[in-house]
Amino acid sequence: MTEQDRIEAAGAEDARIRRAAAAFGAVFLLAGVLGFIPGITTGYGRMALAGHHSGAMLLGVFQVSVLHNIVHLIFGFLGIAAARRGRRAARSYLTWGGIFYLLLWLYGMGIAEPSFNIVPVDAAGSWLHFGLGLGMISARWLIGARTRGNMPHWG
């Protein structure tokens, strides 16, 4: 691989990692906004500020609260900002965001006492957090693996 090829590959990697951070950010923004829309969020009138007693369900599946929706909005804004800032910020967002969501998954799976459930996390939400965390970390590590020569080129 020539020096010019390396420069072009690094530029392509930069664009992909930034797009991944922006995409995750957009998904989180969408989830945060949809969590505040009656109809899309069932039981909207029973939404609590925080805690396990919130009766609101995003798409009728995922228990949400005002705090939960705000967390999604914050993660969304952070993803968009990281993508705009550059490759290092996008990688950090995907790594630390993924770790956060994996920890949130463990938190949701391990909660025995509902009073400690300040962000409503039900089984569906816990498994979604697992998928998001794994997806963010995977995106971070897989994007650029081909550039670094760690993946085969299949055409």
TrEMBL record:
Top-level division of the source organism's lineage: Bacteria
Listed transmembrane segments: 21-44, 56-81, 93-112, 124-143
UniProt keywords, alphabetically: Membrane, Transmembrane, Transmembrane helix
Which Pfam families does the record cross-reference, listed alphabetically?
Answer: DUF4383 (PF14325)
Q: What is this protein called?
A: DUF4383 domain-containing protein
